[in-house]
Amino acid sequence: MHRKKRSSVDKDETSASTDASKFKKSRMTGRQSSKASVQHDNNETVFIQFLRAAGVSLSQGSASNELAVDQVVFHKRLQQQLRKSPRYPEIVKEFITGLEAHIEDPARFKNCLLPCVPRQAEGASSCLSSFQESLIRLLLGVEMLQTLIINTLFEKLPEFMFDSSAVDGLNIPRIIVNQLKWLDRVLDSNDLTAKLMQLVAVAPMEVQRDIITSLPEILEDSQHTDVARELNSLLQQNTQLSGPILDALSSLNLSCSLLTEVRVGVMATLKAVELEHLPVVVKFILHSISSSDACEVVCDLRKKLELDLCVPPALQASQSHGNHKATAGCSSTAAASRQDSVSMVLEVIRSTMRFHKTLSEAWLKAIESIDEADDHKVMDLLVLFILHSTNANQSRRGAERVLRQKVRTGLVQEALLHSTFRGFAQVLRGYFPSILALAQTLLRSPDASTVPFGGSLYTHSFTAFDSYCKQEVVGSLVTHVCSGVGGEVGVALELLCGLVEDQPSEMSLYAAFIKGVLDYMDNLSPQQIRRLFHLLSSLAVTQQHQATHIQDDMHIVLRKQLSSPVLKYKRMGIMGGVMVVGSMGAHRPRVEDPAGSTLSKETYRQVTALLELVQSCSRSSPEAEALYYDELANLVLTHTLDPQVQTWVGKSVMEDFQKDFVVDVGGDMTGSFLFPPCEMYDLEDDDDQKDFAINLLPLLAVDLQHRDDTSSLPGRAGTERRASPLCLAPFFRLLRLCESRQSQGDLENIDGLLGCPLVLTDLTVLEKAESLTRPERNFLCALLFYIINWFREVVNAFCRQTDPESKLRVLTRIQNITHLQSLLERALAVTPGFTPPLANFDGETTDVVLASGSAAQPRKEKKENTGKKKKAGNSSTDASLLEEETEETQQQEVREPRPGVSLEAYRPFFRELDLEVLTLLTRPLLDAELSTKERGGAQLGPAELVFLLKDMLYKLEFSLAAGPAKRPVFLKVKPDRTVGFSHLQQKSPKDIASCCVRLLPTLCSHLQNCHTYFQTLLSENQGVVDGRGVDVKEHQLMSTAYQLLLQVLHMTFSWSGFSQTQQRGLLKEALGVLASQLHKGGPEPTLDQLTRRGFEYLLNFRCSVPSLSSALTLSQLLSAVAGRGPSPAAYREHTASLARHFLSQEWITASGERENKYNESLTAILSIYLGHCEDVLKAIEEISGEGIPQLLHAAKHASSSSWPTLTRQTFLVFYKGMMAELEKAVRKIPPGKHNDSTEVQSEKLLVWNLAVRDFHFLVNLVKVFDSRPVLNVCLKYGRLFLEAFLRLGMPLLDFSFKKHKEDAQSLLKTFQLSTRQLHHMCGHSKICQATALTNHVPALKKSLEQFVYRVKATLTLNHCQEAFWLGNLKNRDLKGEEILSQRAQESEEEEEDDEQLPQDQSDDEAQEKEAERTTKNKRKVDVNEEDDDDDVTDDSDDD
Q1: Are 1259 and 1205 in contact (CB under 8 A)?
Q2: In what order do the strands lie in the sheet with 56-57?
Q3: CA–CA separation, 1161 vs 1153, rounded Å?
Q4: DSSP code, position 1186
């Protein structure tokens, strides 16, 4: 007990003590007259006299009563006085009557209810406690007075019931009820309880609450059950008393059944409970849960707990601004009260989770069981945050797992997160560390679908929380940027840019954090460097006064980078400088003059000065200058510059381009060239329009000569500016973008560049490229790269033109590109070690790594100085011999055929095609019969179609199929996959997917054309693919186009963004395009109908796919389309049937040979078939029992009749696929349980019998196909199968051996034959001494030994241990022949040389070797049968 505070009572303590001391002195002196004494005694009642004698002095007025003795002494004295009185027991009634008379005065009644104060004489020390009970409380401790005083209190209480604050602002009813708490003994507890419950029925609400909350401290344990039932009944009648009633019930000792009954009643009225009582209600529910019903109760609580309705819309609107400023008046108080109540509810949930592990698991299961996005509530996110905030690692990991899974499947969306932060920002502030940790986890997730949700957590946290949280958010995002992980860095930079755009004033306070990223620029990609400088410059421009230090730091960094001789840092400076120009020189239109300039003179001066600085520093090298043109062109394309800045950029572009790269047609060309110049690729029909040409050949010659001079005289580098062919394509891109910006997309002023000729040389010289010198071949290869890149940039420029002539010329340029690429392939084949000129200048490194094996590698020449040194006199002879050897080597090098070179490895050295170029796919495909005739109109040929589809596939693989972000590997250089996709990186995956959906009708049209082509081809050649009348080249092009079309469609429908709810409309549009090819018109179909119709449409192409790789892509495409529907499992049968159809078809190309990567495609299709078929065990049995025997009886190069793809060359593919799928299938068999029924056990045994039979057949195949790869597969998957059998199959035999004796014996017998063969393979592997095989032997032998003892344990468990017998197993090879041990072989050799050994030693050694030979044996399982036969019998009784 603690001492209660006194208000006005303390003021009269001094006066009361003074009066008491005076009274005491007067009694001791005895100076008062006897008359006065008699009169005083007559006025005092028995109550006052007895109290004074017991040690209590009643005070007058507002002073507190005084207690002079200890409480125990007081009880003893008063009880003795009452008992020893001659009028006992009537004296007790007189005493109570005096008490009633005394407390008639409200002030004196208040004094009796308030604590007494200790009294002591002057100068005397007291041992009394500073806290004393009230007078009423002291009297309740006297047993003979207790019942009467309780009755008096209950009679007195109604006087103050409706005016509880009448006496000095004190709550008299509450004080009265408090007198009854914690009494040492209650004489009549039943009567007291009855009176309290009667009073509850008639008292006001406030008094009811006081009485109910005090019941646990008043009642005895035996009364808890009865009172709990009454309170439960009262709870159903009045939900306003939910809080105090449940608070009281929580403190009562109740049985489980009663607690459950009360909880059910509470759950029924949960929605009607007031918010202020909700914490108590939730606490009672959670504390009354047992482990068995935790999941059920938590699920019910989650459904009925509507926290969304606890916060009114007005409060949500006020919090959405993020200022957290309270509104005026009562609304702010009510809002704070509601937020506090919600916080208390969440704190109750959190406290129960911390101390009850079952509750944490129950909440996770409740949230995890929701399978509809609309069913998720704000409560779910709040609970996940609470779970993550607990100290238990399991709860934290579970919260992360569930949240990641819900976000990935689209069930928890950003709209729900927005509602949570909008209504409960104040509540969420307490869980900010968990929110920040979850945001970091999701942002670093390798799953791209969860990254945006992590970004939203960051954004909402910055918007809704205080300055400390804002600082932490910015610091965490900066940490992401500095991590060096590509995807993580990019997303963090985008989030920072978004925050700067939305809240520039808030972000300016944390500019110092963002500025620190400048020290980690080495880890950033070019696109990330652009975003970083855009971020910093935007922050500096929007907050000029607060962020001047950012401008200074940026300019310092830019000047250092631009002046650096290292090209890497110079590139950073160029990209950063141009991005700063874009922010400073951006056009900000005004209302009065939207098109006018808005820049101040000082800002314009800074912008132009920075541009001049970047331009002057970039001219030191052609690579830097080309990058400057590219960056400036990108700035013009993506930013709206101020008219003054735009004019400055474009004023000299046309003049400089004509000066550097354009010459007049027919002019004199002076200079020394390796090849005679001529004008080629002219598309101008009228000779009068042939005014100019692109001066490419002379520029290249001068550039090569300058490089030679620079290498010989390094001091001459950079002395004067020169035009480089590297800058041709970038400069033209800048020119056409400036022209397009100034002319609103019209390129009429520069359309002559589309058809103008190029100054080249006659490329027919490439037909004899083998006879050219290495410098000449390098020159021609570089020239071809420059021509192709020029044409690619021309196509970028004019692909959007709508006039027919421009369309035709653009397609002609694409034809030129495809022709030049074929020439380049032949040129590269005879030019090993050639490094192409750069075409993309913003890569991580200028040394782009070529894929190994794709480029022609230089032959290794023999070292001429490896022999002995020659004499000096023979130097002339040595020189002549060296020249002859060199000529012979060159001639031999020319005579040797060079392999073809694929240009896929050289893709980084070609200019990037814009996404708009793909609109050329809308042109119709040229008919097959017109392929050799004159083309009419702008039609695509097969080669042009393949060219565009390859580029589209590259773009989709980069944007839609981006792999998870990986940290850079130390000391491991890999080619930068972002090179060549600078323009594409500026578009989001959604933009790319939308573009693909818009092109889907065109792609379907091309796919149908390819289908018709191959159908016609097969019908004309009676189904023979490689007939004499087939054009092999055209067939290859159409087959490649078919394959690319299927790959593009597969890549589109495999985009992970389609699984997000936000992209549901785009997915339905894509599926609608496929469905419309068969079903047009009618009502709007559902997603399931669209999926089914699209699947049916694509399934029609199965009969025309020309190659196995195309068949694989079609199967994958159908699986992807089926996965986008609501029921993917409904299409498994169709997918398996299609894969079976492809496996039962013979695949031969038009050239009569198999395609490249045939085995890889066959492996994938076999995996699809076995993975989607209804019964994989029967499918494996069909292939192994039907197809393989047909192969064994067929000719050497023949195939199986029922499985044409199964040949001796592809046997390993089938064998490995079947073993892998068999092992995967047995791992899915549920383990046997003791409570399984007989039917279930019989069914599981049947499945295991089928699996073991398939395994036995596959293992025995190594006797026929005994190559090392086959043995390797058998050893690997044999061990895995054996381990699965030990883990899942043997427990089943433990419980079913007696009931299914014959099935169990058959299973063990068949499996034992397989284990014996595996043992023979282990011995064979040791004989072969093949490391790839022997690596599997130790683990396999360990599993075989475990199998022996596991079978013994099963037989012992079923009382059949006498049926187990161990015998000696001899080491045999695959053919069954015994393998002699090493000691036996040594003994035979020694017996041959026996005469050379002493007689006494030979006998001893022979005995030792014989003993060693007999001990070198292996154990094996054999049941009641000798030799090598296997049998399992059970001779024991049934019991």
Answers
A1: no
A2: 56-57, 66-67, 117-118
A3: 15
A4: I
Residue 1309, amino acid: K
Kindly state the tokens that stand for 1019.
């019908």
pLDDT (0 to 100) of residue 717: 46
Amino acid at 988: S
Q: Answer yes or no: are the C-beta atoms of 575 and 529 closer than 8 Å.
A: yes
**Which 3-state string (H, E, C) describes 406-460?**
HHHCCCCCHHHHHHHHHHCHHHHHHHHHHHHHHHHHHHCCCCHHHHHHHHHHHHH
- Per DSSP, the three-state class of 693 is strand
* 1422 beta partners: 1365
Q: What is the reported pLDDT for 894?
A: 38
Mean pLDDT of successive 10-residue segments in the chain (1439 residues)? 37 39 38 37 74 87 84 90 88 90 87 85 55 87 89 87 66 88 86 87 85 87 85 80 81 82 81 80 83 85 78 47 44 67 86 84 90 87 90 83 88 88 88 93 86 92 93 93 84 91 88 87 86 88 67 88 90 92 82 65 89 91 92 90 87 86 77 82 71 88 77 48 87 92 86 90 87 90 94 93 88 93 92 90 58 44 39 38 39 45 88 93 66 53 93 92 50 62 87 94 93 87 65 88 95 88 88 89 86 93 91 94 89 92 84 76 92 91 89 83 89 92 90 78 88 91 88 91 89 81 84 87 82 86 85 80 66 69 47 40 39 35 36 36
Q: Which amino acid is at 565?
A: P
Q: What share of the chain is helix, strand, coil (3-state, %, to 5)?
A: 65, 5, 30
Region of residue 264 (left: phi > 0; alpha: psi -120 to 50; beta: else) = alpha
Where helices occur in 448-525 by DSSP H, the ranges are: 451-464, 467-481, 486-502, 504-508, 511-515
DSSP readout, 264-275? HHHHHTGGGS-G
Dump the DSSP string for 951-1013. Answer: HHHHHHHHHTSPPPP-PPPTT-----TTTT-TTGGGS-HHHHHHHHHHHHHHHHHHHHHHHHH
- Cα 1308 off chain centre by: 45
Ramachandran class of 1430: left when φ > 0, alpha when ψ lies in -120 to 50, beta otherwise: beta
Please report how the helices 696-712 and 774-798 are oriented relative to each other, as an axis angle in degrees rounded to 10: 130
- In the sheet that holds 758-761, the strands lie side by side as 662-664, 692-694, 758-761, 677-680
Residue 391 CB coordination number (10 Å): 7
User: Quick check: 162 and 204 in contact, CB under 8 A?
Assistant: yes
Contact 1192, 1169 (CB under 8 A): no
- Report whether 440 contacts 472 (CB < 8 A): no
**How much is the pLDDT for 962?**
55
Q: What's the distance, Cα to Cα, between the start and end of the chain in Å?
A: 70
Q: What is the DSSP letter of 1285?
A: I
Judge whether 960 and 830 are in contact, CB under 8 Å.
Answer: no
Give the angle 532-533-534 at the CA atoms, nearest 5°: 90
Sign, Cα dihedral of 1059, 1061, 1067, 1072: positive
pLDDT of residue 46: 86
Which residue type does 1059 have?
A: S
| Amino acid, res. 1249 | N
- Number of Cβ atoms within 10 Å of the Cβ of 1014: 20
Distance CA 217, CA 472 (A): 48
Residues in the chain: 1439
Three-state secondary structure call for residue 1158:
helix
The pTM of the full predicted model, rounded to 2 decimals, is 0.75
3-state secondary structure of 678: strand
Query: 656: buried, middle or exposed (CB in 10 Å: 19+, 13-18, 0-12)?
Result: middle
Write out the two tokens for 238. Answer: 């009045």
599 three-state secondary structure: coil
